[in-house]
Request: fold
Amino acid sequence: MIGALVFLGCPFRLILRLPGGDLNGLAGILGLALGALLVARLLRGGFNLGRAYKMKPLVGWTVPGAMVGPLLLAILKRTFVFASEKGPGSTYAPLAISLGAGLIVGFLAQRSRLCFIGGYRDVFLIRDFHLASGMAAVFVATLIFNLILGQFKLGFTGQPVGLMPTTSGTSWG
Reply:
C-alpha cells in the first residue's frame, strides 16, 4: 500500500497530483523516469519483444466491451453494488459528467497519441520531445486550473486521497 501511494499507481494520476502541489509525486516521477531510462538502455542494448502482429478489430473492443458491465451497474444502481458513504470514495461527479468528460479526454488523448511512458522513452532513446510535450501540456493546464480554483496546496501531507499519519494512526486526507 505504501509503495502504491509513493508511486501513485498511474502516470496520469501523477501528472494531475504534482500540479496540485502534492510533493509525494516527486518520488513517483523519479521512479517513472528511471524505469523509462532503464527500458531505453535495454532497447539500445538490443532487447526486443519481437515483431508486432496485426490483430482483428474485435481485440480492440475487448476492454471497452468489458467496461459496459460496470457502466450498467452504475446506471441501474443495483443494491448489491456498495458505495462509500464517507471518505474520499464517497465524493464523485455525476455519472453523465464523468462519462462525458472521460470520453472527450480519452478521444483527444488517443487522437493526439498522448503517452506518458512513450514520452519518457522517446526523450531518453531518440531525444524526441513530441510525446513529452503532451505531458507538459497536461501539467501546465492542470497547474493553471488548480491555481485559479484555489486547489493548489504545496506539501507532502494533507493532500487529497492519500493516507497521512496522525496521532491516532492513519486517516484519509
User: Anything to note?
Assistant: Strands lie at 163-166, 169-172. DSSP finds nine helices and two strands in the chain. Residues 52 and 134 are 25 Å apart (CA to CA).
